[in-house]
């Protein structure tokens, strides 16, 4: 038998909406839309009370007519304010991975199935305060983009979002809470710096060659510190010096049969004194540098090994492994290599 929630938890669940996280399309039923008078609405109600008392004291028929006309207008505004949110559909979109310290961009799709417009809908992320105001045309949809700070690596859940409106005249404030099942992957913040020099002993970033290249020139690429000085395009460097453009990047000659080097990036080859997060940040920076340099690189973490490769898929796989690495699942990692 399933135990019921405590009264306090039941009240909180009723007030905040469905139990999070909510998957798929979220429809804001009337029971999920809450409404209270705004500050302007309270002043409006006070004005109506003064008009009513004055009309009663002085028996002014026009005063009664004005009072009830304004009261009817306020009631109509309350209905319209609730209607602006009720039956609105919300669906979470895809969030692209970001690096720690940047902003994670969460996309929320809003759909209006009604035959009337829904102006001035404020979408606000409660934890960070990120917000955006959108207008929805009849039988249309739009997208709200929330920039949420990503402070730590790992999965960043979207959390609770509030949708609010004060349309049409601002006398009432209507709002509803949603918490879509949406999250963003946060990579470690990369440490800026070049790749370490290759070492036969496979020290951090050690490389080993597999084949001897031929002499068929195939093009130029950006210089990598691990490249042999014999392959540097010195003529291009000389031309850059002649034209006073020393800031331009050095270039390396590529040959059709160039030897392919495997660059292994290993967490255990970095000094434990740096701390886990600093080592992960350094590895993230090396992954980006290796990808920019066109190297064939792999990643080794305790319990995880990604074979050497290159390209966007390899980069994403390595950064994801660094983002989701948990030392608690790998107690051997804390030991010195």
N/C terminus separation? 52 Å
Q: How large a portion of the residues is in β-strands, by DSSP E?
A: 25-35%
The largest sheet is: 5 strands, antiparallel
Total of helices: 6
Q: How many independent structural domains?
A: 2
Low-confidence runs of at least 5 consecutive residues:
1-5, 199-215, 243-248, 328-337
The CATH topology of the largest domain corresponds to Immunoglobulin-like
Determine the mean pLDDT.
Answer: 82
CATH classification class of the largest domain = Mainly Beta
Overall body shape = elongated
CATH architecture of the largest domain: Sandwich
Q: Count all strands and give the number.
A: 18
Say which CATH homologous superfamily of the largest domain is assigned.
Immunoglobulins
**Rg, nearest Å:** 31 Å
Quick rundown:
By secondary structure, the chain is of the alpha+beta class. It is built from six helices and 18 strands.
Note the main attributes of this structure.
337 residues, alpha+beta, Immunoglobulin-like, 2 domains, 4-stranded antiparallel β-sheet, 6 helices, elongated, disordered N terminus, disordered C terminus
